[in-house]
Design a protein that fits this description.
9 helices, 5 strands, alpha/beta, binds adenosine-5'-diphosphate, 5-stranded parallel beta sheet
Length: 181
């Protein structure tokens, strides 16, 4: 299964991505996690990406697309993947389509996790990651509205919307149901 997860910061994509990856036995590919690992390890990519994560801005497409393209070459991706946090713009979605096409692959599903905006801010403030300060959260929400939300149209027709308000298990059950339709 090759699945893309969409949703605003705080929608719980990361948590659901881990659960979906376990139950479908495919790797979770989180661009946010990959960037944070590179930052912690002090790699060149990490140094280049850090200012964007700190500000809540998108890391430039040149860095992000290459990161995903490389990851798709790893052996564990042969059975599929859960993409969490990529694509995040129409430009990235087009790049992903090209990466898949080159490999003769297609997506099986695109899931959107939907949560009302006021609940999102509360969830993020309770989380305490370095980029979870009020100003940066606000900017990440704006970036989601401006850059990422257009993907809901881009994937129209293959998009499954999941109500992401509820317990982790409730949301997970809804996400699984989305594949059965
Ligand atoms: P969240 O969705 O909760 O904001 P992520 O871990 O998915 O958290 O992303 C954190 C940050 O990593 C983003 O604000 C951005 O700076 C960077 N990032 C993650 N994925 C991408 C991407 N696909 N393109 C550009 N930047 C990204």
């Amino acid at each position: 299964m090759r699945i893309v997860l969409l949703g605003p910061p705080g929608a719980g994509k990361g948590t659901q991505a881990v659960k979906l990856a376990e139950s479908l036995d495919v790797p979770q590919i989180s661009t946010g996690d990959l960037f944070r690992h590179n930052i912690d390890a002090g790699t060149t990519l990490g140094l280049q990406a850090k200012q964007y994560l700190d500000a809540g801005d998108l890391v430039p497409a040149s860095l992000t697309n290459a990161l995903v393209d490389d990851r798709l070459n790893d052996a564990d991706v042969a059975q599929g993947f859960i993409l969490d946090g990529f694509p995040r713009s129409v430009e990235q979605a087009e790049a992903l389509n090209a990466m898949l096409k080159r490999r003769g692959l297609k997506l099986d599903a695109v899931l959107e996790f939907r949560v009302p905006e006021d609940e999102l801010v509360d969830r993020l403030k309770g989380r305490g990651r370095a980029d979870d300060t009020e100003d940066v959260i606000r900017n990440r929400m704006k970036v989601y509205r401006d850059e990422t939300a257009p993907l809901l149209d881009f994937y129209q027709g293959e998009l499954h919307t999941v109500d992401a308000v509820g317990t982790l298990d409730e949301v997970f059950a809804r996400a699984l149901q989305a594949f059965d339709r």
